[in-house]
Specification:
Helix content: 40-55%
Number of helices: 18
Shape: globular
Distance between the termini: 57 Å
CATH superfamily of the largest domain: NAD(P)-binding Rossmann-like Domain
Bound molecules: nicotinamide-adenine-dinucleotide
Number of strands: 14
Radius of gyration: 23 Å
Structural class: alpha/beta
Number of domains: 2
Largest sheet: 8 strands, mixed
CATH class of the largest domain: Alpha Beta
Amino acid sequence: MHIAVIGTGYVGLVSGAGMADFGMNVVCVDIDEEKITKLKAGEIPFYEPGLKELVAKNVKAGRLSFTTDLAEAVKRTLVIFICVGTPPAPDGSADLSAVKSVALSLAETIDEYKVIVTKSTVPVGTNRWIKQLIDENKKNDVKVDVISNPEFLREGCAIEDFMRPDRVVIGGESDHAIAIIKDIYRPLYLAETPFVITDLETAEMIKYASNAFLATKISFINEVATLCDKVGADVITVAKAMGLDPRIGPRFLNPGPGFGGSCFPKDVRALAYLGKQNNHPMHILEAVLTVNERQREVTVQKVKQICGDLPGKTIAVLGLAFKPNTSDVRESPALDIVERLIAEGAKVQAYDPIAEEEFKKAKPELPVKYATDPYEAADGAHCLLILTEWNEFRYLDLEKIKNLMAEPAIVDARNIYEPARMQKLGFKYTGMGRGNFA
Ligand code: NAD
């Protein structure tokens, strides 16, 4: 089976390398020449654990290659996966310009039967629109089938998620095309991965509803956490006990500085937009976004509570990525929070094991002093603010940190430390929703 994957970001590159590892011949296409040059040289343009090795192994085996030439790549392939970005437009809708551009390029080049598979997260109706665009613009009467195959991988454990997904969703109208895509995922089928075979619209909705529900869980527990702080309850025990009810489940009930990343914020906004467009406002989702925005402010307020007014204060920020094990800072809470701390007069010394360069690119104007380790960041600081739960922050030498800081104060926005222990060590400490310890 020959496959083309268009877009070599997190989804495209992981899926392309994953399918090559299943034994298929995969050519990955991108318009970004720099990215393709790097990939050809064996470099991965972003950090994802295990990806470099997986790519190298499959390139060496002759099953994975890279190009900027879409026409050439598509010529030899039966199945084409669209994995380009669908970033948020200013009005909250999904910006489909990259998807449209790919569809029009495909219409130009296709001269035999193809299955076009959309892995990008796209609003309900988009796959039908892609088919229409291609049918209206193609230069011949060859048949094209369109399949919706949303991707659920998580950055930081993307390979594991691709290789062992909770489910594979395949939406389409052509039994023939569905059978071809099922065949690609045959290795997973054998591992008894649940497959959901459905229509285009339902497949598209599954992706948005899933992300919106996960984001709802986060905003819910964040809102409960802030109330816990006010009334003296401990959210960790609350969440644990809630999670023991199998109707609720224990996962995704960890309070923090609010969700970020390239998916949750944009997908919640896009689903809310779809609701508005269809005269059906999604009240819960509007609240999820409002709470998420407020959570940044809650975090800044905690810093101010613990170390007073910010002018003249130095804040050590640990973690810039939106979550551990990724270099991605898209919509990371750190972007907002660091900006606000600086705007209110604080100096910021920041450390992230991987995401520093991406953060600099996203906020070149911010006068952040970047440290090479957590201890350098803590040196002379009046407050240590933990924004990302990188494993290396869980085992800091806290005596050393205390001695380096101007004031021993910690705002643990990821609840990675136990309040009682921190107080015993002599820190002024506040977590998120730790009640009487707040
Ligand atoms: P990304 O921004 O990392 O990568 C997108 C790539 O597409 C870029 O390399 C870009 O150069 C390329 N591209 C843009 N226009 C192109 C064109 N016309 N031709 C060829 N290449 C083009 O994006 P991503 O994070 O991989 O996300 C891709 C899609 O998958 C989005 O819709 C996203 O919502 C969805 N998704 C992302 C994740 C995730 O964790 N990142 C998970 C599931 C689904």
